[in-house]
Write a structure and sequence with these properties.
The chain is α/β, with parallel strands linked by helices. It is built from 14 helices and 25 strands. The protein folds into 3 domains: 2-95 and 228-298, FAD/NAD(P)-binding domain (3-Layer(bba) Sandwich), CATH 3.50.50; 114-223, FAD/NAD(P)-binding domain (3-Layer(bba) Sandwich), CATH 3.50.50; 318-523, Glutaredoxin (3-Layer(aba) Sandwich), CATH 3.40.30. It has helices spanning 2-9, 43-56, 118-121, 137-146, 166-174, 273-298, 318-329, 347-359, 376-381, 413-424, 432-439, 458-471, 486-491, 514-523, and strands at 15-18, 60-63, 66-70, 76-80, 83-87, 90-92, 96-98, 114-115, 129-133, 152-156, 178-181, 184-191, 195-202, 208-212, 220-223, 227-229, 259-261, 335-341, 365-371, 389-393, 399-405, 445-451, 475-481, 499-502, 506-509. α2 links the parallel β1 and β2 (60-63). α1 (2-9) runs parallel beside α2 and α10 runs parallel beside α12. The chain is globular and about 70 Å long.
Amino acid sequence: MTAGIYAGRARLKTLIIERDKPGGQIRITSEVENYPGILNVSGEELGLIMRKQAEKFGVTFRQGIVESVDLKGDIKKVRTVDGEYEALAVVIATGTVPRRIGFIGEDEFRGRGIGYCATCDGEFFTGMDVFVIGAGFAAAEESIFLTRYARKVTIIAREPEFTCSKMIAERVLAHPKIEVKFNTEILEADGDSVLRYAKFINNKTGQTWAYESKPGESFGIFVFAGYIPQTAEYAEQLRLDEYGYIVTDENMRTNIDGVYAAGDVRKKDLRQLVTAVSDGAIAATHAEKYIAIKKERLGIKTEESHDTVQPGKLFLDEDLREQLVPILNRFENKVGILAILDEQQDLSNEIKSFLEEFVSLTDKVELNVLYKGQDPEKEKSINAEIFPTFAILGRDGGYTGIQFHGVPGGHEINSFILALYNVAGPGQSVSEEVMSRINGIDRKVNLKIGVSLSCTFCPDVVAACQLMAAKNPDIEAEMIDVARYPKFKNKYSIMSVPALIVNDKDIVFGKKTISEILDIIEKV
C-alpha cells in the first residue's frame, strides 16, 4: 500500500493487484498500537485508509490472482486469471501465510475448530476454552484478542519463554483469562463434527496430558507458528534464501533490474508494520528513478497527468464496479431478484441498498422488493422461512433454489456473481461425471451454508452448492451470514465456518469441493 502511495505521488501510472481485501496481513490484526503517531486503530481500518490515500494519488486497484510472471526483459509481464499486465517496474509485496504445524488432526479439523485467524473465527468460540499454539508476537497478541470471547485461553509454547517483545509477553502473563504452558507441544486433535479432544506433551519431561471438552461442548485451537513467504510464482527468476524469502539489497532491489520486493516477503530481521511501510516507500522511490532512466532509453514519453480515482459507493467501489460490468454484459438471459425484507430488522435496509446499487450496473437483472407478509404467495414460491432474504429467479421468473440471507459482501461477492452467471448463462462448465451426479439427485435437498464474510473458504462451498441448485430444480442452496442471524447460529451451535447443513439436520464443517458435497448428499 505504501509503495502505491509513493508511486502515485511520483505521478507514475500505478496498479496494485490484490488477491484479497486491501491491507494484506494487517487487516486481520484487531488492534495496532505500535505504529508511530497513531495511538490505536484496527488493522482493517488502517488498510482502508491507506487504500483511500493511494486512490487519491491516482493508483488503480484490481482484485486478482497472479498465475505467472516474466520479469527479465525491459517490459515486465504479470499474468493473472483475468489477463496480462505490462510494466517497466514491479514491486512484489505478496507477504506470507500462516504455517501449519502438521500434528494429527490439523488438516481434518481445519475450519471445524482449528483456525489460523482469530479475527475471522474468534466469535464462534464465545464461552468456550481455546488453545493458542505459538510463542511469538502473533500468538501473544491474538491470545489477548481471543479473551474477548473465550472462557479461557491456554497458550501452548514449545519454547521455554515468549519470543516476542517483553512488554506484550508481560501483558499475556498477567492476563487473568490466559494460562501459559511453556516447553509444551500439541500431538493430536480429534472429535466428531467438531473438536472434542486434544493431546499435548511436555518436551522437557516427556509427560503427556489430554484435554477433553465437557459433554455437549467443543473448544478451539488457533495456530500461530510462523509464516511461509508467498514466492512460488517468482522462485525460478528471483534469488531466494533457504526459507523462500526474496533477497534484496538495502534499496529493495532484487537480482533483476526493475524488480523490487517489500514487506514480509523479503529477507530481513524484523517483520512489522513499520518496517513494511519503510520497505514500500524505499521500493517505490527507487522504482521511480529506474523508470525515468528506462523511459529515456526506450524513448517512452512521460504522461503529463493522470486522473485521481473517485471514491466508490457504499457497497461497490469503483474498482469492483469496473470489474463487474463486463461480466454482467456476458449474461445471455435476464434474471430476477426477489427480496423479502423485514421492517423490524436493520439488515433489511442494508440488503435493499446493496441490491439497488448492484442492479444499477446492468439491465440484465431485475429487482422486486417486498416486505414480510405483503405477498404470502411470493414468499411461499421461494420457500422463504428466514427473514430478511432474497432469491434469484430464472428467465421465466421461477425460483432457482438459490437464496441469500444477508449482504453478500466481502468474499461472498464472488459466490453471488457466480450464482447469477450460472442462472443467466452461459454458466460455469461442469464435467460430465459431476453433472451426472447432480442430475442423479431425484429428491428434495436443502443446503444451508453458514458463512462469515471474512472467511476465505466459505465462497467456494456456497458457489458449489448454488451451482448444483442452478442445475437441478430439486436442490436448494441458501447462504446465511451467521453473524447477522443469531437464531440460526444458535440452533446449530455453529462456531466455525463454512458450516453446511443438509435438510436442516446433518451438519458438516470446513471447505468442501463439489464432489465432496455430493458425497455428503448421497449418503443422507
